[in-house]
Amino acid sequence: MHRRLPFICFLVFVALHIANTATFAASPEIPLKEGAWNITLQLNPKTPDFLPIVQMLCLSQKEPVPIPAKNAGCRLLTKEIEGNTVFWVAECREKGFVTRSVGNATYDISKVEGAVQTMTSAVGKETEMRTYTLTGKRQGNCL
């Protein structure tokens, strides 16, 4: 009977490891109420000649990154979730310009705050870098 004890301990270890791995493999949920969100990007530091960029986006647990991924030739390159915060890298291509953005958004159920840094380049032009403050609120259900 004592000979079986190491084998039983091994089986318990494997079962616990599989259960633990399955728990971590599931994508984490953030405190985000799904729906239509009004997202504002304000140039940082603020300048009087640059109005904030305001967009309405449909956000969900599956798609929590506040970028117009389906519009303007944008695509999400990476996405990571840590606690209440989503981190991402995205790229948009439009009319000879390539804009790469690195951002973060911290959710608190119906509001969000974060920051986005963008680098825009075009052939024959100097790369332009900008930093934005991101804020937003849930407005209702998606249409």
Structure description:
There is one protein chain. With 143 residues, the protein is α+β, with helices and mostly antiparallel strands. It has one domain (35-140). The chain has one helix spanning 4-25, and strands spanning 35-43, 53-59, 74-82, 85-94, 97-108, 111-122, 128-140. A seven-stranded antiparallel sheet has the order 2-1-7-6-5-4-3, with no helix packed on it. It is globular, with a radius of gyration of 21 Å. The termini are far apart.
The number of domains is 1
Mean pLDDT: 82
Share of helical residues: 10-25%
Regions with little confidence, pLDDT below 50 for 5+ residues: 4-25
Strand order of the largest sheet: 2-1-7-6-5-4-3
Overall form: globular
Radius of gyration: 21 Å
Distance between the termini: 65 Å
Structural class: alpha+beta
Order of helices and strands: HEEEEEEE
Number of strands: 7
The helix count comes to 1
**Sheet with the most strands?**
7 strands, antiparallel
Concise summary:
With 143 residues, the protein is of the alpha+beta class. It has 1 helix and 7 strands.
Relevant terms:
143 residues, alpha+beta, seven-stranded antiparallel β-sheet, 15% helix, globular
Helix-strand blueprint:
Elements: H1 4-25, E1 35-43, E2 53-59, E3 74-82, E4 85-94, E5 97-108, E6 111-122, E7 128-140
Antiparallel strand pairs: 1-2, 1-7, 3-4, 4-5, 5-6, 6-7
